Amino acid sequence: MPSVSAILLAAGRSSRMGALKALLPWRETSLVRYQTETLLNAGIDDIAVILGYKASELSKELSSYNVKTVINKASESGKCSSIKAGMAAISPSSTGVVIAAVDQPLLLNVIRQLYKFHGEQPAAIIIPAFKGKRGHPLLIPEQFYPELCCISEQTQGLRHFLRNRQNEIATVEINEPSILLNLNEQADYQAACWEDS
After folding, report:
1. What confidence tens digit (pLDDT) does each residue in 111-148 have?
2. What residue spans of 18-173 are helical by DSSP H?
3. Could you tell me the CA-to-CA distances from 152 to 33, 76, 137, 155 in Å, in that order?
4. Cβ-based neighbours of 131, under 8 Å, separated by 6 or more
5. The pTM is what?
6. How many CB atoms sit inside 10 A of residue 133's CB?
7. What's the pLDDT score for residue 184?
8. Strand bridging mode 68-71 / 169-173
């Protein structure tokens, strides 16, 4: 079985939401706990949760989980710094890394499908899609770890990395519209809660 790590990005200020996204209620728990539990339940035991804004509060929220909480003091500079902080924390011997954001709710069956596909195509960058539209999370294999450690906001970070690796991306069609969900603003969150009820 491949050994997969995960980076959960939870360092942002949530300025557009007006409330800290990581602590929003989601499926009878907080969003950051839900995301962490989903990754653990998918069989990933090497998880780095990247914190920044209100890190101490979120660290307490995660204290009962066997995960690495990494405080990114440069989180204000953008998502790339958090990905690099995560790359420095995960096991270098893992065969791939799932990169997830706290405001993009995960589904257990989706992660398991990515995990299975990674076992079949270990060199592919795996991205789930719904009706041809790419969603989240993505799984990046170990041969790209050095590149992930060097991404920057100045060069559009992960977007630039993926744009240059189109031939190495495997898109997995999954019948789950929620893989496109982004909880950016209150309206997004309220609509998602209504649909999930």
Report:
1. 999 999 999 999 999 999 999 999 999 999 999 999 99
2. 31-41, 55-61, 79-89, 108-120, 145-148, 157-163
3. 28, 13, 20, 6
4. 173
5. 0.95
6. 11
7. 83
8. unpaired
